[in-house]
């Protein structure tokens, strides 16, 4: 490695920290050989449910060089979203990641600043920012660069910080110093498998997306299948069960990102408030939230399904 590579790598990691990212790891932009057969098997078994988009761009998902010309490095970043306060216990639940401003906007802005800083410091660097909106296997890249390991619930877990964080990437045409993967620390623990209300974790490290409460309440656009009646554990948008029970999440600390603070009304509303939700309140409480993805009608469908 030349001294510039080291200098550039240190600069990027320091800048990421300055922008509030929890951690930053870097991998060589290459074909994900281990992931290829796994992804193919998962898709062939129909674990993606109605998420047809998962079948598109198969090659791009496995090779970042098809997304960014002459890509050399994948810079993986984690951003904490663990809240300091949670909802009224007498209310249908929303996944913690969706409490505040939609993470896509928050992270995209940070990545834009990071890429501009790299270009100012180093010169002409080509690259693209990704926040789970393109065919990038973000957990695989984060694990490859040592930011954590993929747990039995198929989430990225980190010893010091648990799993309540977003994952994003900058893929750049700049060679950097690469980090190596860490080891798996799930051991014989099966807390997530035992706790999943819909038995969506069909075997350690394999989640059947079509059974996952997050899929049923967000991705699925038609009616929720009746087989899930009474199994939704009061979740109306997303689900955190497999993260809440994970022993590594006892180390989660509250985030410091002002944009992730929820609308105070969201925390106060009880079951009755949610059942009487109007389009107007929905628009106010979820003004810039990821919950808008399911739309007012979708959230209403989910609330009704819980109470039927």
TrEMBL record:
Keywords: 4Fe-4S, Cobalamin, Cobalt, Cytoplasm, Iron, Iron-sulfur, Metal-binding, Oxidoreductase, Queuosine biosynthesis, tRNA processing. Residues 174-206 form the 4Fe-4S ferredoxin-type domain. Pathway: tRNA modification; tRNA-queuosine biosynthesis. It comes from Pustulibacterium marinum. This is Epoxyqueuosine reductase. One of its GO terms (cellular component) is cytoplasm. It is found in: Cytoplasm. [4Fe-4S] cluster 2 binds at residues 196, 212, 239, 242. Pfam families: Fer4_16, QueG_DUF1730. Its main location: cytoplasm. Monomer. The active site is at residue 132. One of its GO terms (biological process) is tRNA queuosine(34) biosynthetic process. PANTHER family: EPOXYQUEUOSINE REDUCTASE. Catalyzes the conversion of epoxyqueuosine (oQ) to queuosine (Q), which is a hypermodified base found in the wobble positions of tRNA(Asp), tRNA(Asn), tRNA(His) and tRNA(Tyr). It catalyses: epoxyqueuosine(34) in tRNA + AH2 = queuosine(34) in tRNA + A + H2O. GO terms for molecular function: 4 iron, 4 sulfur cluster binding; cobalamin binding; epoxyqueuosine reductase activity; metal ion binding. It comes from the Bacteria. Binds 2 [4Fe-4S] clusters per monomer.
């Amino acid at each position: 490695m030349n001294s510039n590579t080291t200098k550039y790598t240190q600069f990027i990691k320091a800048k990421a920290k300055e922008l509030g990212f929890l951690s930053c790891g870097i991998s060589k932009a290459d074909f994900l050989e281990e992931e290829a057969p796994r992804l193919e098997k998962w898709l062939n078994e129909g674990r993606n449910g109605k998420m047809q988009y998962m079948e598109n761009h198969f090659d791009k998902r496995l090779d970042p060089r098809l997304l960014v010309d002459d890509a050399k490095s994948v810079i993986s970043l984690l951003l904490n979203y663990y809240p300091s306060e949670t909802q009224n216990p007498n209310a249908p639940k929303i996944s913690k990641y969706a409490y505040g401003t939609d993470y896509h906007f928050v992270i995209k802005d940070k990545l834009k600043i990071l890429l501009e800083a790299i270009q100012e410091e180093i010169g002409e660097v080509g690259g693209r920012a990704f926040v789970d909106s393109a065919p990038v296997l973000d957990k695989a890249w984060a694990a490859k660069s040592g930011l954590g390991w993929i747990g039995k619930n198929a989430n990225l877990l980190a010893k010091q910080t648990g799993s309540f964080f977003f994952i994003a990437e900058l893929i750049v045409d700049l060679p950097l110093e690469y980090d190596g993967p860490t080891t798996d620390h799930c051991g014989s623990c099966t807390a997530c498998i035992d706790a999943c209300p819909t038995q969506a974790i069909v075997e350690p490290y394999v989640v059947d997306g079509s059974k996952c409460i997050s899929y049923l309440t967000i991705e699925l656009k038609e009616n929720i299948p009746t087989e899930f009646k009474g199994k939704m554990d009061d979740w109306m948008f997303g689900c955190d069960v497999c993260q809440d029970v994970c022993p590594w999440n006892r180390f989660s600390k509250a985030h410091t990102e002002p944009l992730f603070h929820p609308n105070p009304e969201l925390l106060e509303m009880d079951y009755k408030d949610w059942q009487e939700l109007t389009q107007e309140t929905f628009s106010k409480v979820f003004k810039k939230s990821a919950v808008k993805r399911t739309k007012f009608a979708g959230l209403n469908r989910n609330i009704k399904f819980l109470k039927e």
